[in-house]
Design brief:
alpha/beta, seven-stranded mixed beta sheet, two-stranded parallel ribbon, 14 helices
Length: 337
């Protein structure tokens, strides 16, 4: 009798393995607003390659860049609804839905990509990820360093303090948290999808935009602008995410393969972006752009006071700003921007 039961068990296991091997691959459509040459677009190709190696035939990864499938903002909604499997998600869009985490969008809080990573792997990060998953039906996989955001202006002008940006029409993503940051910087924020920024600068619909230098380079904004002002106002990251419903259907080995591929993609992205940032100031100068250095202390003091004095700071989780500051690697904490 025991031999018969054993034979049945072995047969069932073999049948299950056969069905698993022959199962249709899981579709992972990824939609992002960034252009093909942008490093964090290229990082998605690394994600696809690593995932195919780790789980051959189990996933069908399709990458849609330049907002070709869903425009910026709509991609997040699509993942929440289950119409899209993966995208990049900013802390700003998260803060729009979970205002207690608006503190994560405050300029001059995070010091480096490592600081972001340390936060996301901490107990605070675990709580943050769990709350996002419950509220937005989105699983945060890994933070990818986007770069340190600087001001990029259509015309040359004096920018020493936030007062100098009064009346400047500065493009921001169409998000309450992003628009608030534009006001904190002293500018007049204008909501605009990323794909429209080049034309907006070219025609004068906007006077300025803010992005990390690698993004300015990839999108060729240097062709339609005359100045970069190194405000260093936001060490920025975006999260590679997957729909929670998709994630929960994966088995443990598939989850490990997706997570490991996401971690590797973001690590590759971080290394490439930091190396590129180091070279781009000279490149922009060679293209005729003026690269200026404002009074960073004046910007930091003005911007953080704007945040801390606002009603939105009353919604922040108590004590988190101090705890995140304490997580900064010593080398980063000692830097004076």
């Amino acid at each position: 009798m025991s031999k018969a039961i054993l034979a049945l068990a072995v047969g069932a296991a073999m049948l299950a393995g056969s069905l698993s091997a022959n199962a249709a691959p899981i579709d992972l459509k990824i939609s992002v607003p960034s252009v093909p040459s942008d490093i964090h677009t290229q990082a998605l190709k690394m994600f696809k390659t690593d995932l195919e190696k780790a789980a051959p035939g189990q996933f069908n990864v399709e990458i849609y860049d330049s907002g070709s499938l869903f425009k910026q903002g709509a991609d997040t909604d699509a993942v929440e609804r289950g119409n899209l499997q993966m995208t990049y998600l900013s802390f700003q869009l998260i803060a729009d839905q979970l205002p207690q985490y608006g503190l994560l969008t405050m300029p001059y809080l995070f010091r480096s990509a490592q600081h972001y990573d340390d936060f996301m792997k901490s107990k605070l990060g675990d709580q943050f990820k769990a709350d996002v998953e419950q509220a937005m039906n989105i699983r945060l996989l890994a933070p990818c360093y986007l770069g340190t955001r600087e001001l990029n202006l259509r015309k040359q002008m004096k920018v020493d303090t936030p007062d100098d940006l009064k009346g400047v029409k500065m493009r921001m993503p169409d998000s309450d948290a992003w628009l608030f940051m534009g006001k904190a910087l002293g500018a007049n924020p204008v909501p605009m999808p990323f794909g429209d920024v080049y034309l907006g600068l070219q025609t004068g619909t906007i006077d300025a935009q803010d992005n990390p230098l690698p993004t300015d380079y990839a999108a060729k904004f240097y062709e339609v602008t005359k100045q970069i002002t190194m405000t260093k106002h936001l060490v920025d990251a975006i999260n590679l995410v997957i729909g929670a419903d998709v994630w929960n259907k994966l088995d443990d080995s598939q989850k490990a393969a997706v997570q490991n591929a996401a971690d590797a993609a973001c690590k590759w992205n971080d290394t490439k972006r930091k190396a590129e940032e180091d070279k781009l100031v000279d490149f922009f100068k060679s293209k005729g752009l003026a690269v200026t250095n404002p009074d960073i202390s004046a910007f930091r003091e003005h911007v953080q006071k704007y945040y801390l004095d606002s009603d939105r700071s009353k919604q922040w989780t108590s004590g988190w700003v101090d705890q995140i500051n304490a997580m900064a690697p010593k080398a980063d904490a000692s830097k004076k921007n």
